[in-house]
Predict the 3D structure of the following.
Amino acid sequence: MKKLIQMTINDRAYEVAVEPNKTLADLIRYDLGLTGTKKGCDTGDCGACTVILNGDPVNSCLVLAVQADNAVIETIEGLSTDDGLHPLQQAFVEKGAIQCGFCTPGMILSAKNLLDKNPAPTEAEIREGISGNLCRCTGYQKIFEAIESTRS
Amino acid sequence: MLLPKFEFHEPESIEKALALKKQLNSGARFLAGGTDLLVYLKKKIVSTDHVISLQRIDGLGEIQENESNLFIGACTTMAAISRHPAVLKRFCALKSGADNMGTHLIRNRATIGGNVCNASPAGDTLPALLVYDAVALVESPDGKREIPLTDFFKGPGKTDLKNDDILTGFRLPYPPDHSGAHYIQLGKRKSAEINVVNAASFLTCEPGTSNILSARIALGSVAPTPIRAPEAEAALMGRTAGDDTFNAAAETARFKDCSPIDDFRGSAAYRRAMVGVLTKRTLAEAFDQARA
Ligand SMILES: Cc1cc2nc3c(=O)[nH]c(=O)nc-3n(C[C@H](O)[C@H](O)[C@H](O)COP(=O)(O)OP(=O)(O)OC[C@H]3O[C@@H](n4cnc5c(N)ncnc54)[C@H](O)[C@@H]3O)c2cc1C
Ligand code: FES
Ligand code: FES
């Protein structure tokens, strides 16, 4: 039976009826059309589906949409403003931290969460902060440099 | 990967959750953080018609500092355990287990009750819970009961819980003064890795001396369940802490207490050797804390 849930995504209120067996990742991508959230493995290993759920980054492929009833969610689409890209997004572009781009939304959300909670992370903390996000292309170094360039 | 169809229930109390489970019988499964259950459902390792979420039950996600022990609710996440002041101050080996589980994304969802119910021989919080003498608190339609964690694990993925039981939390007695504990996990990489061997040790020393008053060692990934190492513990009791004593205990753990197997993560012989190394290292670190 479908269940009616409410959530706020990127400051916009949503009310949707969902099947209990739909994951938050599938709801965000296929029902709400926010395709910046990627699906790589669907089993919690790759981090491509990272979203920030009530202030904490999680694998949205391992959260049921019904579990996110009344939640406040941030996806990659919520980061840029009328003034342009978020500083982290800009740094990823400038430092060449994006190749195919599949891991990028998750990487940036993990990095944003890290910097929001710890504005001056050490090298080890940056690497730990993105250790739940796999990248097949860059070898991580450029991603690391992009995040490092935005820390205070 | 599609999840099979199921009905979703979100009871607000333990009583309601127990009643639902009884009514739906074996067709229902409890859901905590979902990092095991949703993966198993997607991979069709388990199936269910009803999922009963424990997430909205008050108190199950809390940590309480009681007079002589710490209560950790079953639905407390690894992230919450890792930053709780009482865990940091008195249960550093548990903090280390919680910090080493999966990735930071997984740790924001995964619960300690789920880790224990999943009963993997390699589970990252289990050795620390064992050496801290944790007691599992269980509720069923017939009432409440307590299971010492040493009696909880029955095999890979198998526990002492009955179909109608809810694990509500754990009670960990505060370690006495002059105690120390340490946990080490050995894997092929640092993040999101299933352990090859993991071990925790706990020591209490007589004040002002190096005499060992009590010792507990727990080993993971080297038997069908996480285990205590009684022979190695006996080799420490009443002895003077130090390299010779720790080496002797490590050899005992290596050859008498564990029964590892060969698999693609490591050979039985390598695991045995690492039981020795990790036992020695965790004891030495526990001792440093105990005399600090
Ligand atoms: C990418 C990834 C990496 C991982 N890495 C690690 C790791 O490094 N170390 C490690 O130990 N584990 C790891 N895990 C496994 C998993 O995250 C942990 O076992 C976690 O603690 C499970 O908790 P949960 O709350 O998500 O459990 P759930 O999936 O919600 O539940 C697990 C099982 O326990 C039952 N259950 C849960 N809570 C209760 C309760 N209170 N009462 C009765 N039954 C209950 C459920 O019915 C279910 O059968 C990993 C998983 C993933 C996906
Ligand atoms: S798609 Fe969710 S972690 Fe890979
Ligand atoms: S840029 Fe291709 S996966 Fe990271």
